[in-house]
């Protein structure tokens, strides 16, 4: 989803900060102490992990490819790199030991209802008077955009499965038709709340602040005259009225477009006619009639004098706005596609003609016009959503960007991570030198993306000793400095491999464009494995250092997208670790060539080892707990749906293991059920940043183990995508991530709590009615405190 559109108002451009702290995440000072966070010395185990006593050897590194021809080199590695067996001591834990009561059949919450509950939490932020006013407008737009995507993908897919007879009962026990009817009823309630929040609360308060969102009949004559001139000069030339009669069939209505239904009468014949006018999507949705006064574009088009320009000589009886949502999910049969790029481009053309799944109309619409629309569009009565105007409140994104900082979240500028900015200097830091000293654990947007990950790739592109760069791209921006750096590297003679996931939903067209641009620059561009999306976030740099080759790596939870890196909360690891470099070499070889490798040294990779690796670790926590050793499971993800993972969590709870799940969106876990999940807590945090990181922490008998990476706990991620989690080695980094998880789950911070009935309850105040702060505010304030700018 878009993606589930991020939270409001991007922070300003990043700039360096003189922040200095110990080698843990920069937010540690802001978080409460955690008993388990003391650095732990982990004994070496014979499972492929490197120890300080292992002897280094030299071996050829075939993954570098043709670069070996022009520079002699060897690769520094350790014996344990050669044939690792990461899970050698976990094989016995992959299957349940049968201890504990049987799990009941109704143990899963419905995923579609859970998604609607997530969007309700977004709506609650818009309804919250403590949210800054323009941010409330932004959350209204986010809610609308999220719901659009939900209908385009989830509802459309459900309808398609019902129509083809392949739909089955959901894991929650509901029949497909029951799910669809629940969606219709629940989404109708939420859309009514959404419209009321705008009409009765946000719009009046904006007016009090001098931002008036008005309708045409509320404008002064002078304002109408000014807009009439604008209409004739800039709007009228791009409008195309389409008649509907025996000679003109009902026109195709594109998905998510705003449309004007015009009821006309011929004054001579007396015959009634219908016409459709599409509101141009490339024009600003709200037009400024005068300073501080904005009117919807569709109101300008439908003004009586303007319709006379469109339909001269005809009598306009009524006008009504409507909007159609269509099935816009893609279906590409890769096994039959000779060229995936060409097949996808054809499917993008077919997407425009997907069947309708929702019809939004103004509640004042004439029954005759509504029946005509229903008949021609072939939508049922249940799929019609009458709403007060204006329709399509995604237009509020434009209003939320107005330059009124006092009505937004306080300004926050990310700083350079302290390990990459040891001293203030006019010259850029040597990132490779920093990584030779120690790993760098990044937390965006609190740590600047541009001075860390982006700088890492830009330095690699210009460094004459860098021989090769290998990179995955799932989503990136239209003016991406990442793409520019890769192009510069290729043009300077470096070997550049870029794995572009051209099937990234709703970014397909942009990714096709950048794939072609990269190919033209001389990059080796591949599109991943047939039947699998490549969703992992990986970057590998191979550098000549004396007589050896060194590998520098980045593994992250977020896309290589500089703009969303200011809005999305993500974790990343920059490292010169030999095991991670070897793992990434092996994984890139699998993605670009032919390889059946399924196990790695410090990675868990889907679809082969990730689910089983996590389940084995969850099961092992139950054994630790029974033996009286420290045990816990802490998980932070966007979505928690996979039944096998959830069942493992239930069994761990039955064994007495405390389980914490921090989820942003969908969650099928039913917490707090006696004899099943009484030891499971589920929390959700929403705010100015979109919580996007995926972290997995285990008590591991007193030797904490922490992983993070790209994978959510969903079937598509674990079975149909290439995903990667990396194991965190540095004890200070493990402690910082554990502290983050504990703070997000704490009753002393603001969040939503999930109950066993599937209902979410917001906890935003303490017992005395004092407002609780969420973890995002705490992390921001920690940065400001270090700069002497803490909020009161």
From TrEMBL:
Protein's UniProt keywords contain Kinase: yes
CDD domains assigned to the protein according to its UniProt record, in alphabetical order: PLDc_PaPPK1_C1_like, PLDc_PaPPK1_C2_like
Entry binding sites for Mg(2+): 475, 505
CC cofactor: Mg(2+)
Keyword hit for Cell inner membrane: no
Domain Polyphosphate kinase N-terminal stretches: 108-214
EC number(s) recorded for this UniProt protein: 2.7.4.1
Domain Polyphosphate kinase C-terminal: start-end pairs: 430-596, 603-767
Gene3D superfamilies: Endonuclease Chain A, Polyphosphate kinase middle domain, Polyphosphate kinase N-terminal domain
Root EC class: transferase
Active site: residue positions: 535
Keyword annotations from UniProtKB, A to Z: ATP-binding, Kinase, Magnesium, Metal-binding, Nucleotide-binding, Phosphoprotein, Transferase
Molecular function (Gene Ontology), one example: polyphosphate kinase activity
Domain Polyphosphate kinase middle: 223-398
Similarity comment text for this entry: Belongs to the polyphosphate kinase 1 (PPK1) family.
Chain's role: Catalyzes the reversible transfer of the terminal phosphate of ATP to form a long-chain polyphosphate (polyP).
This protein's name: Polyphosphate kinase
Protein's organism: Streptomyces ureilyticus
Gene responsible for this protein: ppk
């Amino acid at each position: 989803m878009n993606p589930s559109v991020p939270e409001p108002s991007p922070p300003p451009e990043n700039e360096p900060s003189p922040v200095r702290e110990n080698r843990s995440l920069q937010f540690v000072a802001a978080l409460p102490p955690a008993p388990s966070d003391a650095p732990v010395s982990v004994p070496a185990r014979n499972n492929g992990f490197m120890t300080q006593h292992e002897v280094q050897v030299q071996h050829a590194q075939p993954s570098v490819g043709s670069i070996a021809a022009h520079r002699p080199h060897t690769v520094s590695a350790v014996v344990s790199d050669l044939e690792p067996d990461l899970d050698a001591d976990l094989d016995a834990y992959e299957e349940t030991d049968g201890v504990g009561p049987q799990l009941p059949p109704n143990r899963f919450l419905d995923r579609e209802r859970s998604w609607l509950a997530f969007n309700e939490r977004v709506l609650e932020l818009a309804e919250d008077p403590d949210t800054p006013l323009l941010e409330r407008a932004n959350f209204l737009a986010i809610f609308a955009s999220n719901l659009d995507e939900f209908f385009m993908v989830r509802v459309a897919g459900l309808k398609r499965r019902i129509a083809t007879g392949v739909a089955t009962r959901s894991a929650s026990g509901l029949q497909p038709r029951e799910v669809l009817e629940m969606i219709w009823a629940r989404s109708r309630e939420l859309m009514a709340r959404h419209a009321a929040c705008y009409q009765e609360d946000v719009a009046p308060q904006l007016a009090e602040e001098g931002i008036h969102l008005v309708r045409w009949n509320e404008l002064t004559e002078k304002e109408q005259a000014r807009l009439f001139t604008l209409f004739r000069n800039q709007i009228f030339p791009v409008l195309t009225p389409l008649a509907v009669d025996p000679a003109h069939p009902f026109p195709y209505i594109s998905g998510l477009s705003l449309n004007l239904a015009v009821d006309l009468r011929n004054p001579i014949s007396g015959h009634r006619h219908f016409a459709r006018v599409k509101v141009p999507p490339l024009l600003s949705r709200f037009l400024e009639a005068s300073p501080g006064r904005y009117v919807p574009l569709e109101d300008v088009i439908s003004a009586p004098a303007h319709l006379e320009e469109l339909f001269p000589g005809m009598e306009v009886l009524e006008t009504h706005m409507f909007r159609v949502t269509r099935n816009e999910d893609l279906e590409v049969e890769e096994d039959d596609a000779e060229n995936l790029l060409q097949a996808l481009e054809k499917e993008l053309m077919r997407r425009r003609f997907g069947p309708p799944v929702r019809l939004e109309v103004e509640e004042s619409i004439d029954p005759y016009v509504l029946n005509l629309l229903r008949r021609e569009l072939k939508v049922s009565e249940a799929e019609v959503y009458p709403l007060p105007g204006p329709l399509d409140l995604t237009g509020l994104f434009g209003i939320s960007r107005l330059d009124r900082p006092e009505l937004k979240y306080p300004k926050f500028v990310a700083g350079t991570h302290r390990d990459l900015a040891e001293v203030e200097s006019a010259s850029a830091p040597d990132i490779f030198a920093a990584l030779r000293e120690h790993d760098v654990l990044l937390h965006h947007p609190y740590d600047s993306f541009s001075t860390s990950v982006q700088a890492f790739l830009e330095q690699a592109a210009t460094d004459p000793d860098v021989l090769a760069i290998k990179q995955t791209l799932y989503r990136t921006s239209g003016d991406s400095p990442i793409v520019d750096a890769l192009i510069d590297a290729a043009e300077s003679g470096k070997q550049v491999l870029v794995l572009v996931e051209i099937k990234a939903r709703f970014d397909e067209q942009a990714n096709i464009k950048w794939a072609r641009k990269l190919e033209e620059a001389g990059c080796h561009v591949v599109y991943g494995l047939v039947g699998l999306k490549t969703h992992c976030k990986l970057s590998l740099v191979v550098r000549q250092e004396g007589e050896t080759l060194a590998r520098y790596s980045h593994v992250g939870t977020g896309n290589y997208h500089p703009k969303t890196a200011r809005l999305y909360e993500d974790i990343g690891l920059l490292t010169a670790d030999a095991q991670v470099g070897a793992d990434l070499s092996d994984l890139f070889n699998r993605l670009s060539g032919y390889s059946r490798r399924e196990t790695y040294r410090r990675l868990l990779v889907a679809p082969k080892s990730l689910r089983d690796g996590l389940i084995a670790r969850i099961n092992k926590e139950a054994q630790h707990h029974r033996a009286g050793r420290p045990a816990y499971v802490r998980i932070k993800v966007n979505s928690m749906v996979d039944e096998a993972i959830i069942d493992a969590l239930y069994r761990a709870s039955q064994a007495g293991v405390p389980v914490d799940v921090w989820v942003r969106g969908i969650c099928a876990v039913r917490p707090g059920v006696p004899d099943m999940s009484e030891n499971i807590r589920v929390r959700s945090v929403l705010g100015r940043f979109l919580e996007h990181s995926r972290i997995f922490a285990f008590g591991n008998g007193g030797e904490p183990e922490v992983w993070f990476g790209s994978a959510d706990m969903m079937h598509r991620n674990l079975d149909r995508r290439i995903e990667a989690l990396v194991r965190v080695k540095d004890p200070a980094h493990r402690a910082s991530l554990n502290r983050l998880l504990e703070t997000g789950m704490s009753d002393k911070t603001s969040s939503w709590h999930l109950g066993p009935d599937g209902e979410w309850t917001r906890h935003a105040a303490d017992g005395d009615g004092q407002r609780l702060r969420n973890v995002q505010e705490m992390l921001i304030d920690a940065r400001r405190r270090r700069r002497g700018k803490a909020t009161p």
